[in-house]
Amino acid sequence: MSLIVAAVVAGATAGLKEQAHSAVRDAYGALKQLITGRHKVDVTPVERRPESAAKQQSLEEDLADASAAEDAEVREAAQRVVTAVREHDAAAARAVGVDLDDVAAQLIRISNVSVRGNATGVELSRVEAQGSIVIEGIRVEEGDNRARP
After folding, report:
1. Predicted local distance difference test score (pLDDT) of residue 121
2. Quick one: which of 8, 98, 81, 83 has its CA closest to 48?
3. Most buried residue, 19, 44, 63, 138, by CB count within 10 Å?
4. Residue 145 — very low, low, confident or very high, per pLDDT cuts 50/70/90?
5. pLDDT attached to residue 73
6. 129: phi then psi, degrees, rounded to nearest 5
7. pTM score, whole prediction
8. How does pLDDT run across 90-144, given as a tens digit for each residue?
9. pLDDT at res. 24
10. Ordered DSSP codes for 111-146
11. Nearest alpha-carbon partner for 6 in 132, 105, 121, 118
12. Closest CA to 58 of 71, 45, 77, 48
């Protein structure tokens, strides 16, 4: 899952709640505007079902087709969403399943992340890869507290 998709999932999970912190709502709104306005990609299916791996994968494809991942402003906005969610709704951030922090990479590929419950999925902190990091398949199913992936 790319940073942008993870940010949309986190924003949809946390930012659309009535009690969402304004920093989360604002950051997600800015990201959504860039994605839908500039790149003409619809995020509504992921907003309706952020836990759906199929919706996330479809969004990933649409973003790739629109070259949104190459847009530095979109990447920065996605990082702001992840940071805001991490600061103001840690449960939603944890439910995202991928926690990239300060990444400098030649290639990092994380695939098919599916979490449920109070789970992490993948957590990287100050990652630096001068080759590749490939993490495949990760699934964490039911836990004591069901969270949306």
Report:
1. 52
2. 8
3. 63
4. very low
5. 95
6. -120, 125
7. 0.62
8. 665 555 455 555 555 555 666 555 555 555 555 655 556 666 666 666 666 654 4
9. 86
10. ---EE-SS--SEE-SS-EESS-EEE---EE---SS-
11. 121
12. 45
Cα–Cα distance, 15 to 96 (Å, whole number): 13
For residue 128, give the H/E element and its range.
strand 128-129
Tokens of 15: 């930012």
With tokens 């979490």, the residue in question is 115
Which of 57, 15, 55, 64 lies closest to 35, judged by CA? Answer: 64
Residue labelled with tokens 């990091």? 133
3-state SS string over 51-81? CCHHHHHHHHHHHHHCCHHHCHHHHHHHHHH
* Tokens, residue 97: 């399943």
Question: Is 30 within 8 Å of 105 (Cβ atoms)?
Answer: no
Q: Measured between alpha carbons, how far apart are the two ends of the chain, in Å?
A: 12
Exposed, middle or buried: residue 21 (CB in 10 Å: 0-12, 13-18, 19+)? middle
Question: Rounded to an integer, what distance in angstroms lies between the CA atom of residue 116 and that of residue 30?
Answer: 27
d(Cα 139, Cα 123) in Å, to the nearest integer? Answer: 13
Q: In sequence order, what are the residues at sequence separation of 6 or more whose Cβ sits closer than 8 angstroms to the Cβ of residue 61?
A: none
Locate 41 and state its tokens.
């990609």
